[in-house]
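Hi, here's the filled form for the chain we discussed.

Project: internal
Contact: R.S.
Residues: 175
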Amino acid sequence: MRKLKTWELGRKTAEAFAQSAKIPVVVVLDNIRSGHNVGSVFRTADAFRVEKIYLCGHSCTPPHPEIYKTALGAEDTIPFEIVNSVVECLESLKANNYCLVGIEQTDTSISLHEFKTKKNINYAIVLGNEVNGVQLEALNVCDHILEIPQEGTKHSLNISVAAGIVLWEFFKELK
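And the returned structure, exactly as it came back:
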């Protein structure tokens, strides 16, 4: 066995990536203040061919050195839009036929592995603030609330880890 060299990985150029088919998923970040977390979401979105990221509220936005550190250039390959209000963003996405999926632990959430994606639907994945999660006002606009099953003593995950888990599950079903 040997580890592959970077040039052996078959990476697309930024131009080829821009032209490649994307999965029908956008990510909505609700007040993600950490540039490291935002950058990690950009990089994960690039890996799984996500259409776009919406940076809402007080979310850290490019250009920012913390985003650069973790995104490793993905902030240049994934389109993004800065939006003041997460609720207005979600209402606009819903008006454009997106199925809104909040990632949060609520009394009505269902487990991520129980959710069945459909290939003919566009999805908006809503991820919340590092401390307070997704705002209740935003959750109330969502069509579905999913939670990531956890069986340890800490029933929370870092937002970038949660994004990776959720986007992988959607990518597997929609690619």
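Let me know if anything looks off before we file it.
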